[in-house]
Design brief:
This protein is mostly helical and 216 residues long. 60% of the residues lie in helices and 7% in strands. The strands form two sheets. A three-stranded antiparallel sheet has the order 2-1-3. Strands 4-5 form a two-stranded antiparallel sheet.
Length: 216
Amino acid sequence: MHRRRRTALSVSAALLAAAPLLTACGSDAHPGAAAVVGGERIEVTALQAQVRDVRSAQQASPQGAELIKATGDLNREKLNGMIFDRVVDRVAADHGVTVSRKEIQRMRQTAAGQSGGEDQLAAMLLQQQGVAPGEIDGVIRRNIVMNKLAAKLGAGNTPEGQRKLTQVFTAASKELRIDVNPRYGTWDNAQIQLGRYSAPWIRQVTKEAAGPQAGT
């Protein structure tokens, strides 16, 4: 069952683990913004809305108390993902990678089937990545984009392929000039994440890479 869940929404471990990006100069220059990416604001209100959606889903879960305890730094977790998605979008745009609504629906159906149904898929993503039900399509889209980029750039799960992917992401992210509100930390160029924050997908990638099925 664990293997089926990993397959349901597979993003190459190396794709996410080996994507170091840009510098961030956190400042108070943009009041009301959690971050500014490529000149576009990520409003604190938008961040808070995502946090509320996740907390509501967690509270409705039988494992609610455990899930809430495990995501105590949810504000930074969600902001981390919101910034990362914008970096992915820039790289996709630079390389002509697009994803259709039909592709997202098809992948979601496949993922749900491999997870035991829509409810099981939602529960898995909520538990593993802090994803609210309304965010599932966004997660699926990110996965499709990442896999398409890897294929287009010839960046397979090899050291050479990952170096190539890293170079592409680094160049794109520097152009975005990410500026994070100091209350949330600063963007770490070497880790593609907020400061010392450890993103759930990075933790999962590290765990899987160390296991006997790494690279599957």
